[in-house]
Amino acid sequence: MTPQSRILVIVPCYNEQGAIANVVHELMAVRDREGYKLDILVVNDCSTDNSLSIIRSLPCSYLNLPVNLGIGGAMHSGYRYAYQNGYDIAVQMDGDGQHPANELPTVLQPIFQQEADVSIGSRFISREGFQSSFSRRLGIQYFRWLNQLLIGETVHDSTSGFRAFNRRTIEIVNRYYPDEYPEPESIVQFGLQGLRIREVPVRMRNRAEGVSSINTSRALYYMLKVSLGIVFMYFRLNNKRHR
Amino acid sequence: MASVPITIQIISLLSALLFLLFIFRLIVKGKLREEYSILWIVCTVILIIFSIWRKGLEQISLALGVFYPPSLIFLGAIFAITIFLVHLSVVVSRQQNQIKVLTQEVALLRNELKNRHVINEPETSAASPSAALTN
């Protein structure tokens, strides 16, 4: 893998009319500066605002889901696209502007150097930039503990949606990617599939527009759903491995 | 226990037959798939058997060591309902998975068609779910 690898940046978008254009333009600026062979794919998850017409006017590819699938299903369609079109690297980057495109080289570095199959941009390593709220960090701490318990791997920011995958990982997520809230679950998936996970420090911003998909009332459901997802993912893949 | 009065026997027999007729109508109209109707037909047949065979419930209860026959009905009914609800959850989960795959496939195909300039995607896709239903 070199910087000349074909890269696909997948940007899931649900009602991000205020931020999506900026995210794409920033990405294109980074592409031109670094000389990447980089394509951008925006996945419109059945937005109810103006997002789709904004995406259409942008110089990038897009997938337009006819039914709202949630972040997991939207990312999965992006990974399937990356797989079908033979990309070497797939990057996930949020459509709300939380992930600065400037940090893309940092996230891609472990993949270029072939040190990792999965590279995760983490805001908790250097503790710079936006750090999220206390309760949110408490939840992330819990997932860190759960991951350590199940796959023996310490991932500081398991809810981070700023990630880069190499071809090997793309082949795996093309077949299966968790639903709904996929980030913590997929780490267990990667760990059990024997993929090398590497975290790199990135700065994140507070979202420019819109609200988080996880509000306070949904937090409990989120924790329960993700915990169940993680535990059952563990049993499912463990059974497959021992078969 | 006194034997079941004849009136209630006729009423239960009639309602069971009416229910069976209702199920058949649903199948004929295509509103109920045959595989899901099997359970309901079996249930109705059991109902009919017990409305004709008046002593049946008491005899089975005594044989099983259940001293209050109606509790056997509740036990059986709750058990059957639970199993069927789990079955429905499985069906819903499977359908959700199928919908996900279909949605992704549609999006990927739309993208491919657009790249080949075969279609100009209509603007309806951004519309509300209700508009999508009417399409």
TrEMBL record, chain A:
Residue ranges of the TM segments: 219-237
Taxonomic superkingdom: Bacteria
UniProt keyword Flavoprotein, yes or no: no
Gene3D superfamilies, alphabetized: Spore Coat Polysaccharide Biosynthesis Protein SpsA, Chain A (3.90.550.10)
Start and end residues of each Glycosyltransferase 2-like domain: 9-169
Record InterPro entries: Glyco_trans_2-like, Glycosyltransferase_2, Nucleotide-diphossugar_trans
Residues forming coiled coils: none
Keywords recorded for this protein, A-Z: Membrane, Transmembrane, Transmembrane helix
Matching Pfam families: Glycos_transf_2
PANTHER family: UNDECAPRENYL-PHOSPHATE 4-DEOXY-4-FORMAMIDO-L-ARABINOSE TRANSFERASE-RELATED
Protein name: Glycosyltransferase 2-like domain-containing protein
Taxonomic placement: Bacteria, Pseudomonadati, Bacteroidota, Cytophagia, Cytophagales
UniProtKB/TrEMBL annotation, chain B:
Chain segments annotated as transmembrane: 6-24, 36-53, 73-92
Keyword annotations of the record: Membrane, Transmembrane, Transmembrane helix
Keyword Membrane (UniProt): yes
Protein name: DUF2304 domain-containing protein
